[in-house]
Amino acid sequence: MDKTILDQMAMQRALTRITYEIVEKNKGVDNLVLVGIKTRGVFLAKRIANRLKQLENIDIPVGELDVTNYRDDISHEGSNRDKFNNDISFSIEGKRVILVDDVLYTGRTVRSALSALMEIQRPKSINLAVLIDRGNRELPIRADFVGKNIPTSKHERIKVSVSEIDNKDTVELIK
Length: 175
Hints:
Helix 1 packs across helix 2. The protein is an alpha/beta fold. It contains four helices and eight strands. The protein has one domain: 3-Layer(aba) Sandwich (Rossmann fold), CATH 3.40.50.2020.
């Protein structure tokens, strides 16, 4: 049985709240960049950047990070880390990076993203923004900015849909 947790308006409100919290915690947007974890994290990062543009009248760079080759729960035999599918066309050296993802679950994707970012350059700081935190962490990682906490069992799934690729904005709990 599927249950809609966030509809389009609730998702928009959650992202707006995250945006305000980012501005407040960072005392503005100086030296700030957004990096979305592929795939849906990229679209959420772009939405946050658009909201920051409306609020602060400044364009915040948005990068795309593919963490596939950094996962510790996937076999990498014969893989080559040089074959990244990243699009970070700006320096993150000394910047305040906001890493954006759709769902925080075990923490393994975020750990992979941290490894990938540190291999690119050394940012001043990295904060994590997620639309959904579903608990059940396997690593000591927590989000700095959370749209909604949805405690789940290991048998449940969270499905985030974004209009850019799924033609709708929803978050569903799949039992």
